[in-house]
Amino acid sequence: MMIFYTHWSCFLQKLYHQFWHAIFIIMVNDILARQTAMIFKCFLLMYYKNSRGRNYRKQGQMLTLVEYLLLLYRALLPAPVWYRFFLNKEYGSLFSSLMTGLYLTFKLTSVVEKVQYFFASIKALSRKEVHYGAYATLEQVVSAAGDLCAICQEKMHAPILLRCKHIFCEDCVSEWFERERTCPLCRALVKPADLRSFGDGSTSLFFQLF
Ligand SMILES: [Zn+2]
Ligand SMILES: [Zn+2]
């Protein structure tokens, strides 16, 4: 009985140690991946700042794309660590293969979801038309509120006609739709529920531990 007891507590101690070791490795990897993505996003912002004609929509789409790639990569990062942890034969092979199977199933569903998000963000990048309105013709701009944009109070640049018939510059309104889904003037719901945008350069704050 005594021998069994010491063996058991020794095993638990080892398990505890291995668990925190795995958590530590994963957290370091997670931080490194995020730092790399942050540097990359800074380069993107610098590139779009220097390019002629501020292109807020493209910039936002690129930042969103990078963020989804990062989320996918971060979902994959802990998988080998936990795979090794669960496949430890000391737990008994039945328990170990059960845990490995459960973990891989859980991981696969989350990775498939992230792959879908990633491809959706690529598709959004290649989409030419704006999904909350269409480019306005010159007559539409003139017959509306003159050719001044209500957001920037300047002459319209690449005017976009929203579904509610209000017109704004493309850059102004795409910046607005990073945060809102309604028209800035009449509050009509314009933007459909869509892929979550990380166009302002924001990032998910959670640690991806499992
Ligand atoms: Zn404007
Ligand atoms: Zn409106």
Automatic annotation (TrEMBL):
Xref: Pfam families: zf-RING_2
Signal peptide: none
Coiled-coil residue spans: none
SMART domains for this protein: RING
GO cellular component: membrane
Keyword set includes Transmembrane helix: yes
Membrane topology: Multi-pass membrane protein
Keyword terms, alphabetized: Membrane, Metal-binding, Transmembrane, Transmembrane helix, Ubl conjugation pathway, Zinc, Zinc-finger
Example of a GO MF term: zinc ion binding
Residues in RING-type domain copies: 149-187
Annotated GO biological process: positive regulation of ERAD pathway
Superkingdom per UniProt: Eukaryota
Transmembrane segments: 20-44, 65-85
Subcellular location as annotated: Membrane
PANTHER family: RING_U-BOX SUPERFAMILY PROTEIN, UNCHARACTERIZED RING FINGER-CONTAINING PROTEIN
Full protein name: RING-type domain-containing protein
The species this protein was found in: Liquidambar formosana
